[in-house]
Amino acid sequence: MDRTFQVDLRGVVDLLSHHLYGSPRVYVRELLQNAADAITARHSREPGRVLIEPPEVTGDGTLRVSDTGIGLTEAQVHELLATIGRSSKRDDLGFARHEFLGQFGIGLLSCFLVADEIRVETRAAGASAVRWTGYADGRYSVEPADRAETGTTVTLLPRRGAEPLLAAPTVVELARLYGSLLPIDVTVATPSGPVRTAEDRLPWASSGPERREALFEYARSVFGFTPFDVIDLSVPEAGLTGVAFVLPQPANPTARAGHRVYLKRMLLSEGAEGLLPDWAFFARCVVDTSELKPTASREALYSDSLLEATREALGERLRGWLVGLAATHPGRLAEFLAIHHVGVKALALHDDEMLRLVDAWWPMETNVGRMTLAEFRERYGLVRYTVKVEEFRQLASVAAAQDLPLVNGGYVYETEIIERLPGIERSALIERLEPSDLTTRFDVLDGDVELALRPVLTEAQRAVDRLGCEVVLRAYEPIALPALYLVNRAAAFNEQLRSTREQVDEVWAGVLDALARTTTDDRPQLVLNYRNPIVRRVTALDDPALIRLAVEALYGQALLLGYHPIRPVDAALLNSSLLGLLNQAVPDKDR
Ligand SMILES: Nc1ncnc2c1ncn2[C@@H]1O[C@H](COP(=O)(O)OP(=O)(O)OP(=O)(O)O)[C@@H](O)[C@H]1O
C-alpha cells in the first residue's frame, strides 16, 4: 500500500533555523524575493511595488509585506503554500526558471523562524481573494478574503522574543542589505515616514567622469577601504557583471577574502568564496549574476562547472589588468607590487606570465643597489644569489669588494623565483653563491711570507681548533675587515648534523653517524685578512698566549659581524677573549 510522508513542521523549521540558514534575519530576504518574483511573473507594464509595514506602523504587533505581484488563486494556495518543497518557479522538468529568484519551495518557511503564524492574503487577476493562515505546528486554513487589488500581503505574527527582528530599524537595515539593488520599488513605512531601500541601479552601471570616484565611494561604504584601483568585470556565460576592487593594503594570501555577490540583484552573500582563484587575494569583488546557482541556504554559491569557468574567466581578467598595468602604467605597477609583492611572487612560482612580471618589475635587494632581476642580468649577466638574508648581510660587502654582484634571494619566494628564471628565459644564467668560493677570489700570500708566518698560524689554529674551524690567511678587500667566517653548504650541513646528534637517542645517532660518513669533512673557515693592520700586528706577535687571545677575539667578531648563530661555546669564548684582552689592555697598578 502506498502512503504519503508525514512532515512534522516543527522539525523542519528547527532544521532550517539551526542547520540551513545562518540567521533568522533571512526572513526579510525570502519575503522580498517572493514579492519580487510575483511582480516579475505578473509582466505588468506598471512598475511593481513592495511595501513593508513593521509593527510600529501596523499598530497591531504584526509585520506586513504587500506586493503588486501576480497573486495566487485558491487552488494555487493549496498547492503551493501548503506543500513544502513545491514551487511555481520550476519548469516541468524541475529546473529553476530563469526569471525567478526562488526555486526551492521552502522560502516562506523561513518566516517561521520569527513568527508563530503567517497569513497570506492574495488575489490573482480574475479570481477571488483568499486568506491562507499557516501555523508553526503545521496546521493551516484557507478562507475567502476581502481584497480588491491583484497582489499579495503577507502578515507575520511575531514569535515571542523575535519582536526586535521585526522592528522598523531592523527591517530598514535588512531590506537595504538584501534588496538595495532590486529593480523594483521597495519602501519601508516607518513612524518617521517612508524609506525607499532599493537603488534601482547597479553601482557599476553608471558612466561619465564621476564614475570612478563614485565606485571608490561605494567601496568605502561596503568594504571600508579606498581601493588601489577598480576593475570592471563581465562574464556573459554567467550573466555576471560587477567590479573588483584592488586592496590598498597587503592582504594575507591564505586568508580568504569574501566577495559580495548578488543573485539576480538580491544579495546572496557578503562573504562569498570561490568566485576568484586563490591567487587573486588582492581583490574583493561586488558582482551580480543571473546564472550562477545558490546553495539551498542562499548564502553561498553552489560549486559547479559554471562557477569554475567563471572563476577562471575572472582570474584571466585580473591577470590581464596586471599585465596591462605593466605595459601602460609601470609606475602604478611598481606601487601595486610594493603593496602586494608577496602574493604576486607566490603566483609567479606557478605562473610564467607572473614570473616575467616579477622579473621585469620587482626590484630586488642586491649588493649593487636595488634593481630588477632583468636589469641585473642585463648589467652583469650571471645572477649570483644567496638563499638567506643573513648570508647576504654577511657577504654582500665582501663580495662587492671582490667585484662580485650578488642578489639577496633570502626574502620569501625570491630564491624559488630566481631558480625558475632559466625555465622562461633560456639565456638566464644563475648561480647560488657558495661562501667558500669567495676565498678563491682572495689573494694568496707569497710563499716566503706564508712560511714565515707558519708558527703564528699554527698557534692560531690551536686557538679555534676545538670550535671546529679552520684558520686561513689571505689578503683581500675591504682592508677594514680583519676576519671573515665562511661556512659553505657542506660545512653548514655537518654542523647541523653534529648539533642534532647531541640531542637524539642512540638509534637516531647511529643513523646520523652513517649519514655523516657520507659527507665531506668541510669545516667553516676563519679567513684572516693580511691587509688589515690589526691582523698584521697579530701575526707579528711572539707571545703564543696573546696570539690565541687575539685570534679568539677575531673569531668572535667575525661571527657577530656575519650574523652567524652563537653557540654556548662561542659565547663562552667571546667572553673569555674579551676579558683576556681587557686584562692585557688595562694595566694592573698593584703590580
Ligand atoms: N508574494 C507572493 N506572491 C505570489 N506567490 C507567492 C508569494 N509568496 C509565495 N508565493 C508562492 O508560493 C510558492 C512557495 O514559496 P516559497 O517562498 O516557499 O518558495 P520559492 O520562492 O518557490 O522558492 P525558494 O525556496 O527558493 O524561496 C512560490 O513558488 C510562489 O508560487
From TrEMBL:
Q: Where is the Histidine kinase/HSP90-like ATPase domain?
A: 28-157
One GO molecular-function annotation for this sequence? ATP binding
Keywords for this entry? ATP-binding, Chaperone, Nucleotide-binding
Q: Where does ATP bind?
A: E30, N34, D67, T152
- Judging by the UniProt lineage, the source's domain of life is Bacteria
UniProt lists the family membership as follows: Belongs to the heat shock protein 90 family.
NCBIfam families for this protein: PRK14083.1 (NF010683)
Q: What is this protein called?
A: Molecular chaperone HtpG
User: What is the protein's species of origin?
Assistant: Planosporangium mesophilum
